């Protein structure tokens, strides 16, 4: 059945990811970045959000990352990759990934202050890199959920100027 095939594909992808050095490095980069923020006590990042109930936390940590990955990496980056210029790259970053990451960062301006919106640019490039690397969304979704979970868990209500 289709559901069984989807589960099998997801398991194959997970097995590849746990053996993928760049993916492991991307996982490690999250806590390293959070530690830097924590140690710097950078209050210039005016998030000011809260996660006062579990459903709000789940929305920010699971639902939004999945939807954002489907829209930005799945639809937009996928469409841009279909253009001949979209597959051109600088190092490991494709033009499609760069344009998608700019759009992703600009979209965050509608709900976040400028500096906090800018902070999502580098993770967006990372998510896009794995979208390009695997031609699937699983790795970028996993990373996005992990990054959001750690950031929100550690900084909810703390990063307010």
Overall mean pLDDT score?
86
Count of strand segments: 2
The SSE string, one letter per element, is HHHEEHHHH
Radius of gyration: 16 Å
Beta-strand portion reads under 5%
In helices, the fraction of residues equals over 70%
Termini separation: 52 Å
Structural class category = mainly alpha
How are the SSEs ordered, and which strands pair?
Elements: H1 2-17, H2 21-40, H3 54-81, E1 89-90, E2 93-94, H4 95-108, H5 114-119, H6 121-134, H7 138-155
Antiparallel strand pairs: 1-2
Describe the model:
With 161 residues, this protein is mainly alpha-helical. It contains seven helices and two strands, in the order αααββαααα. The chain has helices spanning 2-17, 21-40, 54-81, 95-108, 114-119, 121-134, 138-155, and strands at 89-90, 93-94. It has a two-stranded antiparallel sheet with strand order 1-2. Helix 2 runs parallel beside helix 7 (138-155). The longest helix has 28 residues, at 54-81. The mean pLDDT is 86.
Please outline what is shown here:
With 161 residues, this protein is mainly α. The protein has seven helices and two strands; from the N terminus they run αααββαααα.
Key structural traits:
161 residues; mainly alpha; 2 strands
């Amino acid at each position: 059945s289709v559901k069984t095939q989807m589960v099998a594909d997801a398991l194959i992808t997970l097995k590849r990811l746990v053996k993928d050095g760049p993916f492991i490095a991307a996982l490690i980069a999250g806590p390293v970045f959070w530690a830097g923020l924590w140690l710097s006590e950078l209050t210039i990042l005016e998030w000011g959000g809260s996660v006062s109930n579990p459903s709000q936390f789940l929305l920010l940590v699971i639902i939004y990352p999945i939807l954002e990955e489907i829209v930005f990496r799945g639809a937009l980056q996928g469409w841009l990759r279909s253009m001949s210029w979209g597959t051109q790259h600088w190092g490991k970053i494709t033009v499609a990934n760069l344009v998608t990451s700019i759009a992703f960062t600009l979209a965050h301006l509608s709900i976040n202050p400028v500096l906090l919106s800018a902070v999502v640019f580098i993770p967006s490039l990372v998510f896009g890199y794995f979208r390009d690397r695997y031609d699937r969304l699983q790795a970028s979704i996993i990373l996005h959920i992990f990054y959001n979970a750690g950031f929100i868990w550690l900084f909810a209500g703390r990063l307010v100027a």
